Amino acid sequence: MSDYESDPESCIFCTISSGQDPNASILHSDDDVVCFWDIYPAAPQHYLVVPKKHIVNCAALDKHDVSLDQRADQRLLFCSRLGFHLPKFTSVGHLHLHVLAPARMC
Questions:
Q1: Mind telling me the catalytic residues?
Q2: CA–CA separation, 39 vs 47, rounded Å?
Q3: What is the pLDDT of residues 14-69, one digit of tens each?
Q4: Residue 30's domain spans which residues?
């Protein structure tokens, strides 16, 4: 297993998405995704959106996976920057979308 992969049993984002981390600041949760505050914010509003299904990274997505950009609330996207880390630059081996607001251009 490489540095950026993780086992679902020990994955912090799996723990958060299953509701087992009492310290997580959950903003939204449904059957497919969970959104919570990033613990190391890079903007006044910095959220992570993660699928509840353990997907290692964006390279592991296939056509059967939920598209996070289609699930995102349009109000959340206004004046925001969105981004995934690519493998090798991934700190947690669970796919997560960064949502940072406000974007500098707003």
A1: 96
A2: 9
A3: 999 999 999 999 998 988 889 999 998 988 889 998 889 888 887 787 777 756 55
A4: 8-101
E strands along the chain, which residues? 26-29, 33-37, 45-51, 81-83, 97-101
Please state the pTM of the whole predicted model: 0.73
Give the whole-angstrom CA distance, residue 24 versus residue 39. 9
Which of residues 25 and 103 earns the better pLDDT score?
Answer: 25
Count of other CB atoms within 10 angstroms of residue 56: 20
Alpha-carbon torsion (105, 69, 34, 54), positive or negative: negative
Q: How far apart are CA 64 and CA 7, in angstroms?
A: 21
**Do the domain assignments include residue 88?**
yes
Strand arrangement, sheet containing 81-83: 26-29, 33-37, 45-51, 97-101, 81-83
Q: Which amino acid is at 84?
A: F
Q: How many domains is the chain partitioned into structurally? A: 1
3-state secondary structure of 99: strand
